Amino acid sequence: MKITDLVEKNNLFCDPKNNFKPYTGNVKGQLEGNFNEGKLNGKWIEYFNNGKIASIINYCKNQISGEYKTFFKNGNIKELGEVISEKWHGKYCNYYENGNIREEKNYSKGTLSGKFLYYYNNGKIKEDKFYIQGKLEGKCLNFYSSGKVWIESKYKNGKLEGNRNVYYENGNVEKSEIYKDGFKIGKPYH
């Protein structure tokens, strides 16, 4: 049976050849997986037209739950993470098509929590920041593609706090500002 042979009705996949009863069994084709009483259950694999794997996603009673992995057509990993009850949990990474890492971040029950790194395609860090319960906290750095610091700032409870410095690529200060509770204090220093 193929998934296109089934009909979706009230969030359940039903078999039109069996009085539209919720389907239990396997489907094959471009999308392969198992149904239990009309709900996606277990490992689901989707394929590109070229036959390579596009995604491997785990479900429990129609909800994404477990390892979540997607791929580019060339076979390289695009996204990799863990989902619990439809929410990201733990380490999540996504990649450029060439295989270099693009983002590395951590979640706790769907909320950003912990180190967040964003990379240039050349592998150098673009942003380095930290989250606590979805809010920026502490030192935040942005970099030029050369690896030199571009912006240096601090956050407290998701708001800019203290000095925020913007640098030219040669390391000289372009401007310096001071923030309190997310608001700029005084005039910037150039």
What is the name of the CATH class of the largest domain?
Answer: Mainly Beta
- Class from secondary-structure proportions: mainly beta
Helical residue percent band: under 10%
Tell me the radius of gyration. Answer: 23 Å
CATH topology heading of the largest domain: Histone H3 K4-specific methyltransferase SET7/9 N-terminal domain
Q: Looking at the chains present, what oligomeric state does this protein adopt?
A: single chain
Task: Report how far apart the termini are.
Answer: 68 Å
How much beta, percentage-wise?
Answer: over 45%
Number of helices: 0
- Total domain modules: 2
Q: Catalogue the unreliable spans.
A: none
Second CATH tier, the architecture of the largest domain: Single Sheet
Folded structure, characterized:
There is one protein chain. The protein contains no helices and 21 strands. It folds into 2 domains: 1-88, Histone H3 K4-specific methyltransferase SET7/9 N-terminal domain; 96-190, Histone H3 K4-specific methyltransferase SET7/9 N-terminal domain. It is mainly beta and 190 residues long. Helix content is 0%, strand content 65%. It has strands at 7-9, 12-15, 21-22, 25-27, 31-36, 39-47, 53-60, 63-71, 77-84, 87-88, 90-95, 101-108, 111-119, 125-132, 135-136, 138-143, 149-156, 159-160, 162-167, 173-180, 183-189. The protein has an 18-stranded antiparallel β-sheet that branches. It has a 3-stranded antiparallel β-sheet with strand order 1-2-3, with no helix packed on it. A hairpin with a 5-residue loop joins β13 (111-119) and β14 (125-132).
